[in-house]
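dumping this here before i forget
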Amino acid sequence: MDVSDLLSRAAHVTAALAVVLLLARVGRSAASRLRQPEVVGEVTVGLLVGPAVLALSDRALFDALLPAAVLDVLTFVGQTGLVLYLVGLAHKLRPGPGGPPRQALSALVAGAFLVPLTTGLLLVGLIALTHDTAARGEVPLPAFCLMVAVTMSITAVPVLSRILGDRGLSESAEGRLALASAIVMDGLGWVMLTLAVGLGADDLSGLWEPAVALLAGGGCALLLRLGLRTGPARRLCRRLPRTTAALLGGAALGTALLTEHLGMTAIVGAALVGLAIPGEDPAVPAENPAVPDAGPAPWTQPVAAVSHTGRMLTPVFFVVTGVTVLIDAFSAASWTLITGTLVLGCAGKLLGGYAGARLAGARPGPARRIGVLMNTRGLTELIVIEAGHRAGILPAPMVLALVVMALATTAMTGPLLGLVDRAERRGSVPARSELPRSVATEGSTR
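structure:
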């Protein structure tokens, strides 16, 4: 390739990135006007732009606008954004101080996680009853069942925390309980996702590859954690947070590429790095100028910078997914599959969240609100779906059905909360603050 071709391709990629980011901004703006989480508009526009362009033109024009060489670069950029964003997401998957009591947390997790797992198995049964071979694929049944169950059980921590803030529920008892349980459930989901990817091997001997990849990724993450706990790393983090962020991003990309090369999805490697980064320790005394390594290292700022960079690039991932996965899925996915996935997805979280909240001691009104909050899936669900697809477990029609479910359940969270609020104002359910005193007070005193 000569210099002119290289410059032409670079200009084409730059123009494509600019269009993608502009469309993402339009999607966010439209979602905000409709009082929806911005991620709903961003994801919807990103996923549909490719199929829409192809529907309004012919294949030749589409390939000219987005040739294979440019699509390959966009794929790498989208995956890079996903890896970097996941570092910050995984780093937050730990309950912080001031959380709800363990008994209430365990009860809600039992309802809002186990019931959706069951509805995932029911969805697999529906696919078998309807003989939907396009949605089933050819992977081993245990891997398919576990992957579908995991996708039905996710609650998106970032979108949920944003909704809680917008609704003024962040400091409420049910808000703290919902967010803490979502963190625990997502952590369990990542463990089960890793197991599902391992079970996706054709035979037991094939399990060695993902096992070796997991050990290699875990070893890299452990070395990173040990290195970050040293004095030089702490000083670098305090004095040069941007440099620290760049190094963390490089470590995440390196670990992700290693795990993918060894047979495991890159997303698992990124999650391992995010979990390995030390959290803030409030028990450590404040920084003492006389002792350079005293006090907790401010890892929050570099991690936030890495995650923010990844979040800016994730719209590219959605566009690539729409082009490479959903174009063929629209013709292969049945309405029975899409409707069944949406109904079972809502039933699992709404009923499971309500039942778990009631087991935790919440009264009917707050329990209904918690059930609605548990139904928020958002970007985390899409990351899990992507992991299942890249591992060859979720075929394109199944991906489309799950994406529709993820977007619909996230979009309906606000309106359903509004219905619960209006019902409270009419006096048909207990007031928002009427949680059991043990749940409301014990969590706030921690």
